[in-house]
Amino acid sequence: MQAIRLLPRLLLALLVLAAPSAFPHDLEQVKQAGVLRHLGVPYAHFVANYTTPNGPQAEGFDVDLMQGFARYIGVDYQYVPTSWRTAFGQLTGIGTWLEKGELVIGPPQPIEGDVIANGVTILPWRKQLVAFSRPYFPSAVWLVARSDSPMSPIEPSGNRSQDIALVKSEMAHHTVLAMKYSCLDPDLYQLRQTQARLVFPIQERQLNEMVPAIMNKDAESTLLDVADTLIALEKWPGEIKVIGPVSEPQEMGVAFRKDAPALRHAFDQYLDSIIADGTYQALAEKHFPSVFYFFPEFFDNL
Fold this sequence. Notes:
Layout lengths: L8 H9 L9 H7 L1 E6 L7 E5 L2 E5 L1 H13 L2 E6 L5 H6 L1 E6 L2 E7 L6 E7 L2 H6 L1 E2 L4 E3 L1 E6 L13 H11 L4 E3 L19 E3 L10 H6 L5 E5 H10 L4 E6 L4 E7 L4 H16 L2 H9 L3 H4 L1 H5 L2
Parallel strand pairs: 1-4, 1-7, 11-12, 11-13
Antiparallel strand pairs: 2-3, 5-6, 7-15, 8-15, 9-15, 10-13, 10-14
C-alpha cells in the first residue's frame, strides 16, 4: 500500500511563517475588516457560482451556512471563487496540493480568504495545512457506473474494508474516471495498485460533471462522493448504479488557517446554535433531502 507522504511538522511550521502574511488574521481582524471572505469551489449543492455585473455570486448549502456565520459575528459576507488546486494556497498563503500521493509545495501566493467551505472532506494531508471545524456533514467515496456496465454492485458484507476490497477487484480492467487535487484523487485510496484503467479529465472539471462525463462515455465508471451520488441518482434514475464504497466513512468540515483559532471556535459555537434551533436541519433538508436516510447515525450524533 502506497502511503501518502506527510510533511514534517517543523518544516510545515516554517513554511507557514514564510507565507506572504505571517500576521494573524483571526476573529478580531475579520471583525475589523468588516467582511468574512468565503473561498468556495463549485461543488454539488454546497456551492454553485455565477457571474453578475456586481462580481461573482454563489448559492448553496455552504453559502447559506457562511452567510449565517457572517451575520453571527456581525460582518458582511463575500464569496471568493476558487478551485480544488488553489483553494488551500489562497487560504494559507502556501501553494500546496497532492500529486501522486505526495504533498507538493508550490510558490507563495496572496491570502484571499478566511475560510474554505464547499463540502471539504477532512483528509490527513489537508489537516497538515489547515485547522478544521468540527465535522458538519457526512461523506464517503463510492464507485458509480453506467447502468449498461458489466460491473455489478457488491453485496454488502457488514465489513467496510472487505467491501472496499471487493469494489477494487470489481473495477479491474475497467475505465474509472478520477480527479486529482480533490477527494476523488485515486492516490488517496491506492487505486493505482489495482488493475483499473484510470482516466483523468483533459481540462479541469467540477465534481458535478463526473456523471455527465461517464454518460458521454468518457469512461465506464467514476469515483464519486456521497453528495454528488445522491444528486446523480435523482437526476439520472435507472441510468447509473452504485457499485460500492471506495473509502471508509468520511466527514466534512470548514477549513480555517491554523493561526485563526478564535474564528474557528466562533464557527463551532455558531454551528452548535443552529443545530439547537433547527436552522441546520432546515438547510440540510433544503439542499440534500435524502441524506438523512443514508446517514442517520451521523445526524443523530451531530
